[in-house]
Sequence to fold (411 residues):
Amino acid sequence: MIKVPIAVDMEKVRADFPLLNREMNGKPIVFLDSAASSQKPQAVIDQLDAYYKQQNANVHRGVYQLSQEATTAFEKGRELAKSFINAGSLKEVIFVRGTTEGINLVASSFGRKFLQAGDEVLISAMEHHSNIVPWQMICEERGAKLKVIPINEAGELLMDEFDQLLTEKVKIVAVTHVSNTLGTINPVKEIIDKAHQKGVPVLIDGAQAIPHMKVDVQELDADFYTFSGHKMFGPTGIGVLYGKEEWLEQMPPYHGGGEMIETVTFEKTTYNELPHKFEAGTPDISGVIALGTAIQYMQTIGHEAIQEHEHELLQYATEQLKQIEGIRIIGTAEQKASVVSFLAEGIHPYDLGTILDKLGIAVRTGHHCTQPLMDWYGIPGTVRASLAFYNNKEDIDKLIEGVKRAIKMLG
Fold:
């Protein structure tokens, strides 16, 4: 765990991430794909190792000491998650495999309970497939309709259109907090307030927001908020679904099996209390514990320091890219998080990404699981450089160098 504030010496933070010391294709790695999955600090890696060496036992089920220790550590992870997002109760913190499962849980469970034929679900044009497909599935099953909030060329939601779409037919709104492709920070508080005025609950996909900014679910008044551990410097395969207790109590279980039951007979099953009602089977115990470590790590650095550093990098990267002839930036919203998506004139994103790979620079190319958004812009995909607080200006300089070299080779 770092002891020096991030503003004092950023390199001390960078040194906590062992993978950043390796080479890729014989070059020192420049990792610019944190929106896909972030790197892990040594503290998180050590925690995973320590669990399997010292605490490995199932939780909530054993009277023996090892199981009790594992249970205590596991539930500490829930307490840390609750505090991290300022949930009102531990009952409102559900562990899932990640944002995708969190959205699927709400779409399936809420949808089966509350959606009827002719009802509407409202999403936005910039959603990740994980916040499109589950709603399409439940709408098809229930005979409901999926409606889409449009955007402008900059990649900002047209809020006047949102007002028009928010009719009495809408039963839930589901929007991303931060676009994984555009970097747009959406006005989710305004969306929630307007929806609540009409009695409509809101789910927020927080996968791209949680690593970059402070999220207070009570201040937002979100009904559901979900995010993934692996994008916030924790392990893969673990995430959190926050849900207001009043909604979770009304919704049927998503999975059946152990842990989510109170009593079982062949005639009837009664379900466990929250949060266990939605946590069937043996959970990702090590993942929950290490997610808690990732939370503590982020809190040691501080959200303000993270935002300030990443904003500086985003501005620098944007300015440098704009100076390269033929570069088009996709997503120019006034409010942005640390993502830059771009195209080089006459060069396919995949080809540009391949050249950058040979230079040791890891970026994402393609549609970034936002095919409808790419269709709206009329492009096959983009090159996406996504930043985290462990990046620095030298990483950006190497990206710019690499882009110029690729354009020279391919243009």
